[in-house]
Specification:
2 domains; seven-stranded mixed β-sheet
């Protein structure tokens, strides 16, 4: 399914609060916070000239977030950043002064953090980031996971000392349960989705994602003309689209949001012209994107600066995992989890349909930007799909470099 954005708010300026959240100053703050993190190196931007030639376009670049902060996902940028911000703000209130990020390991801040509990619902990656952020500052974390989250992903979160709480049902059920229990216990919800009356913290999570956009703009020889970004509740798509709109202004790229067909809450919201909750159906292999209700903050951004919406099927996601693991014409191999390469799946679907390709104005001059949002966050599942363990795929690049 494909849909152009014909909403009245399309191409209007971002709401002032969103422009502040996703603007240059905010992104600079995120990078300053990152400077105080271990494993803070910029993630690689992979150029795929072989793929670009095959598609008849000028360039394809994919930001590889499978290397981010030791967590293997772009979400390492969001949840932990929000946790640290919230702890520093609480410390500022108690100490009666501004508390800088350089003080996160100080005894005063750590003592305050130990009295705080942060909580969230997760499909895997966001919870791992929140748990890591809590461990960094000495706070307690309670992470709610629904029945579809694999045992391997649960274990990856628990290793940061988080309390794991299983919830029957879907991701949206776990969001509601996390909010209910957190409210009863006085915990702070650090969610990557928003609802009426709860917007600032999800905004901070989205703000954390702007770091990958700033890095990419520095790493690319020329800014992109087109962007395809996958979406769950919409946070990563909104962060990338919003920051690019601010950074590039009238030269902003044509932005397409990519949804799993089985969990297309952003697509259906765009079709309805307002936020909608869609029915829970058959689970999707794109587990990190299996969301049935959009984030209100994310949708407010996307309604203005997303230009099109497209859905991809199960076989599309699986196919791009394999294609990225075994690339064409000496392109670098990319370890992309089940949700990681979905933006590329959207691009491939678009260029293979002449009407969609024309609607998006994709031609031989197009420069495409994609984000591999996750590596092999479930290595067993990855090997089952691709046929090789993630380490063997990654080793192809080392072998190519020596050849």
């Amino acid at each position: 399914m494909f849909l152009l954005n014909t909403l009245p708010e399309h191409n209007q300026a971002l709401a002032p609060v969103d422009a502040e959240t996703l603007g240059e100053g905010a992104a600079q703050t995120v990078e300053r916070f990152l400077a105080h993190r271990a494993d803070r190196a910029e993630t690689p931007l992979r150029s795929l000239p072989g793929l670009a030639a095959k598609l008849g376009i000028a360039a394809t670049h994919i930001k590889d977030e499978g290397h981010r902060l030791g967590l293997g996902s772009f979400k390492a940028l969001g949840g932990a950043y929000a946790v640290i911000r919230l702890v520093l703000e609480e410390a500022g209130k108690e100490l009666g002064r501004t508390v800088d990020v350089s003080e996160i390991q100080s005894p005063e801040v750590q003592a305050i953090a130990r009295r705080m509990t942060v909580a969230c619902a997760t499909d895997g990656n966001h919870g791992r980031s929140v748990a890591q952020g809590a461990e960094l500052v000495g706070a307690r974390a309670a992470i709610f996971v629904h029945s579809g989250v694999s045992a391997e992903r649960v274990a990856a979160i628990a290793r940061f000392g988080a309390e794991m709480i299983r919830v029957d049902g879907t991701y949206d059920d776990s969001v509601r349960e996390a909010a209910r229990i957190a409210d009863a216990n006085g915990w702070t919800i650090v969610s990557d989705t928003s609802w009426p009356g709860y917007e600032r913290i999800p905004g901070l999570v989205m703000q954390g994602y702007t770091a990958l956009v700033r890095e990419s703009l520095r790493q690319m020889p020329d800014p992109p003309t087109h962007v395809f970004i996958q979406s769950g509740v919409g946070g990563i798509a909104a962060a990338v689209a919003g920051h690019l709109a601010i950074a590039l202004g009238d030269e902003r790229p044509v932005f397409t949001v990519v949804d799993p067909a089985r969990a297309a809450c952003i697509f259906e919201t765009a079709r309805a012209g307002r936020p909608v909750k869609i029915a829970h159906g058959e689970p999707t292999v794109m587990a990190m994107l299996e969301c049935y209700q959009p984030s209100l903050v994310a949708w407010r951004v996307l309604s203005r600066v997303a230009d099109a919406f497209i859905t991809v099927d199960e076989e599309d996601a699986i196919s791009v995992m394999r294609e990225l693991s075994n690339p064409v014409d000496r392109d670098p191999a990319v370890v992309a989890g089940e949700s990681g390469g979905v933006g590329l799946a959207g691009l491939l679907k678009a260029v293979r349909d002449p009407a969609v390709k024309d609607a998006l104005r994709i031609d031989q001059h197009a420069r495409i930007f994609l984000v591999n949002t996750e590596g092999a966050t479930d290595p067993g599942k990855y090997e089952e799909i691709v046929g090789l363990p993630p380490a063997a795929v990654a080793a192809k690049n080392e072998m190519g470099a020596k050849a």
